[in-house]
Write a structure and sequence with these properties.
It is globular, with a radius of gyration of 17 Å. The strands form 2 sheets. The chain has a 7-stranded mixed β-sheet with strand order 5-1-2-4-9-7-8, sandwiched between helices. A two-stranded parallel sheet has the order 3-6. Strand 1 and strand 2 form a beta hairpin. The chain is built from 11 helices and 9 strands.
Length: about 280
Amino acid sequence: MQKRRHFRLKLGLCILCVIAVGGSFCLGKELEKRRLEEVGDWFINDKETVLPQTIVHKVVDDFLNSPMAAGKKEKKVLVIGYDGVRRDALDSLIGKEDSAIHVVGEKGGIYATFAGGILGKNEQETTTAPGWAAILTGGWSDYSGVGHSSDPLNLGVDTWLETAAEQGYNCGFISSWKEHFEYAYAADVNEAVYKNMNPIYIQTHDDESTLDIVTRSFGEYDQDVIFAIFEGPDEAGHTFGYGSDIPEYENAIREVDEMTYNILNEIENRESYDE
């Protein structure tokens, strides 16, 4: 996994969608400011206002705790992760009308963030488990406890999924990467299974099955708050290398972006969308 970038889209007035994707190799805000000089101008913010990836926690929490919009009946949250996607690989998606990233940019906004913690203070690996833990808990590894793939979440640290569940929302965590369920969130998974509690944790076989579960979650499964991760790009990166000049890597990114585009279309086409 590489570093994360976060893309926010508000679909309707009471649906929040966040797409979080990978990025560069550097750590912390100061190095990230330098890297932003190398990319296009499609970020809303700039190198002086680059945000920590932990901001996703606040975005979700603020949305769920804000007043219900006039004429709306319920709130829905969907956070989708593209694991291992470098920022320079996004150039091929911007401007494509059938791209989820393009839709996000048109209807919401694209924001640059940094991973890896704060240099000299609370640095962490820019790998899969620590990155997603930062997004879910709103803190770096010195807070979450997840500094490596085999680390468990610290006791007493809640994710925004758990917080939303305590507020009465039906929540789900969906991914095919087994380490999420065997290490970082193992205690939460066990408690949810044995006590039949919310949120639910679903380990899928691959990205296709993740797509199927996510597509059915807001309807058949009646979920309110969903966190799902597509693993294909990271798998391709580990196998063939990370870079916009590597066809297998680029194809894997386009595939998960098309999947997410289909999910967004499914949401907007639902009869209850305007509610």
